[in-house]
Structures are given as structure tokens and as C-alpha cells.
Amino acid sequence: MQNDASRFAASLKASLSQWARQGKKGVWIKVPKDQAKLVPVAIEVGFWYHHAEPSYVMLVYWIPQTSPTIPDNASHQVGIAAFVFNEEGQALVVQEKSGPYKHSRLWKMQGEGIKEGAIREVHEETGNIDTEFVEVVGFRDGHNAPFGKSDFLFVCMLRSVSSNIVVQDTEISAAKWMAIEEFASQPKNQQSKLLKDMIGICCANVKGRSKGFSGIAGISSNSRRSSAFYCSALHSQ
Amino acid sequence: MQNDASRFAASLKASLSQWARQGKKGVWIKVPKDQAKLVPVAIEVGFWYHHAEPSYVMLVYWIPQTSPTIPDNASHQVGIAAFVFNEEGQALVVQEKSGPYKHSRLWKMQGEGIKEGAIREVHEETGNIDTEFVEVVGFRDGHNAPFGKSDFLFVCMLRSVSSNIVVQDTEISAAKWMAIEEFASQPKNQQSKLLKDMIGICCANVKGRSKGFSGIAGISSNSRRSSAFYCSALHSQ
Hints:
Two copies of one chain form a homodimer. Chain A is an alpha+beta fold.
């Protein structure tokens, strides 16, 4: 063990000298969990932490005497609240949760957009409802999330496209359709101005007065990157 | 060194046993950089990585035989593109960059909202322009950012409130005001449909036809959290 560490330290120092002569700048080491004994060795040589995921930690070192130009670590978590309505203009209410304006768990959207994530989440949470994405109604820009991070909560509207609008109770959750007016007037949905406003916007939008951001897929200046752009539909036509 | 590690391992195992008897669930260890020798010890005991910042790595362990309910690591980087106009309806153009629709560097917004970040960035990048936030015109939801993360780029409009509209060359950047029509017609701003659309939206919005999301500050259900909600101004009045 101790020999492995010594050999790694010597090899790392030799490599850094060579890379410095070659004009290299940033050096990354991705250390898998089962090689964790190399972490203190790299730190001792002068590396610092960049980020970590469950199975590895990424260390970085900057060779020149200049300020490092190293990409920032991720700073935000992202969540969604889905408002789902059907062709009869009813809202989807999920039992024991706060209704259509339901905060789902924060989830990782790596490799997945807001639109795709919202559709998937609604399907998973209701067990059987397929939807099409209508728009982002608004979003909360919040701070002081765990670990000093920030978070976004996107409020999305989706239209049910399931031919069968009868929602069945499932192990995942019990859900039913409710007239929008009935839903909006429930005491719990009158508790905060924000919730009232959001429901008001969603109700207006169900009646065709869209004021949110719809998505334009496939917008990217770089073919390696999958992305979508969200802006007012009034402009994006 | 080796003794420290052995003592830490023994102490950690004893603590885990005690916490298990007490019904504790998640256990966190924040290991500062100068204590990196404890990282492989904790990993050996069964901890895994949660996240890391330059000066520390956070390790986590889940005691029960159930699925861990541990907050996700941050998944998104956030950047801004600022479109700045003045009381004469001119756009701010920054030399050697892509004009008003200028991608600034990705920056961390920890403890800072989109609105505050945009105002600060414009001030820093132009050296002297003070602005007020008008709205989020749209945003890009992109994937395959470095390290498998995703990113958001928020396109924001800001109105100059500096009484002196003469922009001076500074060390930071050279900037000047330009008639919006002249700016929009520049070949580089006609290159992509998205850029054309964005500039078209911004130009329309300068003329008072706002279609973006303006922010409502101080919206939060939790007094520990600072946050703002962004939605259509047509609804937020």
C-alpha cells in the first residue's frame, strides 16, 4: 500500500514536470472509489478537489503561474412542479400531495430536458398518464439549498393525451381529475399568493391564453450538445 | 499517520454502531483538504462520495438496510447572456464579443439570483454601467456540459440607469451604444435563427411589447431560503 502511494507520488511529480515543459496547463485525475488511497497522495502533491460523484472524486491541478481557467463545478439542483389538464379542461389532482401544483422530488436531469423530464415524471408519478408538454409557466430561483447550492423549480403545464382519462389508483399514488374551478377554490390552494397566482395562470392558460415559455428543440451551436430553447410562443412561431 | 488512520477507522466504526442503535440514518463526513488521509479510511469503512468543492470532499453513509434518501448532488451550471439597452433605445455592444447577446462566462450564483447576477455581471464587464433588470427573455436548457452535467443559459434584458450613457473604454472591455436596427442587421447577428429570434424579441421588448418573465422577489415558503419567482408580467401584476 505504502509503496503504491510512493510510486504514484513519484510518477505524478515526474509527469507534472514533463507536462510543464510541454506547456500543458490543467491536469485532471479521476480517482475511482476503490483507489481512494491515491487521493491524499495527489492532494499532497498539490492537487485540489473539483467535484465528486458516488463512485469517484475528480482532482485538478493547474501548472502555470497564472489564474486557473477551470470549468466551475455544478451549482444548481433542478426540480419540477407539474400542472396537468385534460381535454375537458380538468386538472389532475394527486392524493396526499398539494394537487396539480405538486412539488415532485428534485431529480437529476442529466441528459434530459425540462420537457422530457416533466413528461417522464408525470407518467411515473401517476402510473399511467401520458402527456404532451405545453409550456413553462414560471420558475423559482432559490438559494440556500443543501450544501450551499441553489435550485430552480420549474412550474410546467402539460396536456393529457391518454385516451382513457380515468385515472386509476396505483401503488405510486392515487390521482383523479377535478374541475379547475373546484381545484382553484380549495383552501390549501388559497394559502399563498404565489400558489394562487400560479393556479390562476394555469387556469387562464387552459383556456388558451398562453403566457408561458414553450420549448424549441434542437437549438444548439454545437452538435455534441443536445439542447432546447424556451421563450414566448408569440415570438417563436 | 498510520496510527491516526487506524484510530479514525476504529472511532468511525464505533460511532456507526452507536448511531445504528440510536436509529440514525444518514451520516455525513466533511473532510477538509488537509485531512485527505482520512478519505481512504472512510471509503474503506463503507462511505461513498457525495460532492466536493476545492477545499473539501463530502462523504456519506446510509445506516439502514433501506434505499438511501440523500439529497442529490447539484446537476446544473448556470450562465447568463445580457441584452442591455438605454433610454434612447440603443443597445450596448461590447467589443470583440458577440454584442448585446453576449455569452458571459459561466459563473456560480450561490447566494445570488439571476436578476442580481445579471446586474453585477453587466457592471463588472462594462466597468461602469448600472442597470435595472427588465426580464428573462428566454433560456437554453442544455446538456452534455463538462463532467456529464447540464447547464442553463438565461437570456436577460436590462435597462441602463446610468445617467451618463457614454461608455468608456476600460481594461475590462470596450463598449459602446448602437442603434438597435444597426445592431440587429450586423451579419454576425444574422448567423443563426436563434440569435436572430432572440434579438428580434429583445428589439420588440425595448419598444414595450414585453413577452418575457419578470421576477417577483421574496417568494418563499421557508424563511431560511432567499428566492424569487419568474413568470409573465401580464400575470404578476
